[in-house]
Amino acid sequence: MVVMSEGRRLKVALDAFGSDRRPDPEVEAALLAAKDGLALELVGDRAVLDAKLAERGSDRAGLEIVHAPSQISMDASAARAVRAQPDASLCVAVDRLAAREVDAVVSAGNSGALLAAALLRLGRCVGLDRPAIATSLPRADQLDDPAGRTVLLDAGANVECKVLNLVQFAVVGAAYSRIEYGVARPRVAVLANGRESVKGTALTRGAHGILSGHPSDSFEFVGYVEPNELFSARCDVAVTDGWTGNVALKLAEGAMAAWPRMLRAALAEIGSKAPDTEGEAAIAAAIDAGLQLVARHLDPEAHGGAPLLGVDGAVMICHGAAGPRAILNAVIAARRFAERGLTEAIGDALEDHTELFELARKLP
Amino acid sequence: MVVMSEGRRLKVALDAFGSDRRPDPEVEAALLAAKDGLALELVGDRAVLDAKLAERGSDRAGLEIVHAPSQISMDASAARAVRAQPDASLCVAVDRLAAREVDAVVSAGNSGALLAAALLRLGRCVGLDRPAIATSLPRADQLDDPAGRTVLLDAGANVECKVLNLVQFAVVGAAYSRIEYGVARPRVAVLANGRESVKGTALTRGAHGILSGHPSDSFEFVGYVEPNELFSARCDVAVTDGWTGNVALKLAEGAMAAWPRMLRAALAEIGSKAPDTEGEAAIAAAIDAGLQLVARHLDPEAHGGAPLLGVDGAVMICHGAAGPRAILNAVIAARRFAERGLTEAIGDALEDHTELFELARKLP
Predict the structure, then answer these.
(1) Shortest Cα distance from A162 to chain B (angstroms)?
(2) CA atoms within 13 A on the CB side of B154
(3) Family per UniProt (chains A, B) (predicted)?
(4) A142 and A84 inside one domain
(5) Count of domains observed in chain A
């Protein structure tokens, strides 16, 4: 278990060569973090990073660089790349956490490679078979409430899952909801294509059977949740396999991005029929403000990337398209992850549910 | 094969006891259809329907009733219910099509039961293993174009699928895109969690391999499509298993419904800070108009329900929550389905691709 060094400020290692536009967004985020007094080290090619920082001519505010000469590409085969390139920025960043030189890691790189590196270098929490990526969806009626979000996992770490994995995701997700959103006894559901327990697949029915038959003190199992209910307060945690979770996440992103474009098109159509220039401008301005506000609430990156739950340390994944603000928010979230002892809380929760896992292990 | 009787107007059988609020939305839809001169028969309990129609006191406009004394509930086990209740409204409606007394069937009832009844009473198109439910998603930049929609199938008929099913969905979906939306050579994609062919599951990779290795004259295979791309013009047809398709559809519905609520909340927040009552009212009115316009374009029911593709006859499924307008639109779509010979076109397309299916049949 990664233990915080006493008397030292919490420090985050940021993979400087993860994002699609690397390393610019990372450098920018690091400077913003340093300005805010956050302890951070930038991991990547020292010459490039030094040049980038010199270019900016700004105060480096004590920003450290840890040298890592190579980079893992977005389309590389994850496990192979991690083994072949131990000196890649992503691997070195994870090494820093494994060596307890830092307290958390953030990368906007190849998420499969980050998972592989974390498994190889940090290992899993005791008793867990598969870590999961957790994402948080906004709720339509709780936009203003930072805690009013539904945790969905696995959002893509494990394309194929067994009943045991889903049951463990329930336990791990509940610990995350408790620590991150302050929900004392999270309501956990299994994502399915209907509310009735006969719905779903062999996988979901297996998980439903185990979770409904063996109540836990630390979370309340509320049965199946349908995909359209994820944007409401019907449950705090929804568990699914990484294939379905990834489809759900990307579809939500697509729908959320399509909507404002549709509204603008519709308003342009209306506007063209009622040519009142002044009124139109006011309406357009108000809608822009509204759209921006909604976008701010919706932006998954504003909430600090997606944590990789169940590896032995605080690891946060950013979107490849992440910009400086998104990466900065992920750094802040990763720091909070370490500060609040999420890894330890997950370890404890796993230990409390070993009997449940033994039952689940008997199912396919 | 269901053949249109010559010299007779196309007629639709409407299950009067399908929807959640049955039979009121169905009766209302039937009256609207009759007023529009559409030939339609209402299938259900004659006494109840007569009373409903008498209550309305309106001109029945030649509306026929076909008696069916019982009903299948929404949560009934589909196959069992269809066998146990041959006199249920849903079964009798399908019987009318099997007997060629009508040219198409519409039901807002239990979709599993409708599928089971169609399989049992109409059978499948020759050469097809599994029929699929097709749904159409709007594209952000083509709201005004009725043909600018992406066909997604299977949206829920087959929770578990083999490679053969996905390959057949590609052929069937392309035929639908051609007939319904006039796309001469539809671009077909397999839904996956990334664009690269190494992504996905054994199922998607199997379908990708078959479709990319054996080009068809009637459609263009364009590889994988990601869920967030479904709201764009990246492909005309996206194929997936019924589990994933159902999750995608319900998630899209949920996200699309959540968005306007989020915008209203955001605007209320902005409005409360700038209390200009008159301007606010104008803005609210414009946004309402815009939202309504978007909703009209988005509403899956406005586009006439979801066709069940690959059974031997025109069968259209409505949402259980469907109202009169949605059901009327489904009746119009079902009529068009029969008129344009969609079933025959699907049969021809299947016959043209038997070699492809033989290859796919060797994969799991």
Answers:
(1) 15
(2) 25
(3) Belongs to the PlsX family.
(4) no
(5) 2
